[in-house]
């Protein structure tokens, strides 16, 4: 079955690559105008906006149940909401984002990189990434009793009892990493699987994740990635899609301005791993990208050139990434 999926995924990927626009193959690199940081940020913000769902309710309604587009059940108590420490009354808006596939992880820049106890980062396999925020008249609210979600496990390949909860931390460059959520003093919080659902108990609003670390016993290494001239970590990104893992996407979050290389400098990538390395940036409001199938070697260097890039819409790129084996 896995071999069949690999073959079908490869055929679909090949078809999509050839149907997207490949205008750069014969261009003179000196004529290429790279995206600005603002343009790259804007296309990722648009991807987030495209995934944002909104719900309205009254705080006086008490406990309410909301259902997302993918079938996630959100349970929230309006009586627990506060604004600047004061109990909320009246109309409330809830923003909700759900991400289950690596195509949407890439376009929104929300890879699944978990923070290890020593501060390094490694790939997480997800049961779903979520953003939840209640607001009133544009002001973010807080909850003093948390909220719950019921998440269908078939969205990420079935139940996994090793899943735990993680909180999203966004750094000054806008990159997201995940820190394990600790239970509070009363032992509240956490997630468990039962039947075909995950039951998550969240203590605060913001980015959250149902995840576990990817596990591979093989020796690990670092890798370096060179991108086309004119691109760096402000106007482009590099990601790793591990073959056989549909619900996780690694990101290379380090860039050396002197060498012009992106790096996975934590030494967490298995030697011999079959994966796809992805370069992504913006071009005229669309996505410019390149993908290479790679088998990881110790201290390997992967190079992308301008001639290898193609252009795709957000929807096209999402489909292409999700079709990777």
From TrEMBL:
Protein name (Swiss-Prot/TrEMBL): Lipoprotein
Species: Mariniflexile litorale
Lineage, top ranks: Bacteria, Pseudomonadati, Bacteroidota, Flavobacteriia, Flavobacteriales
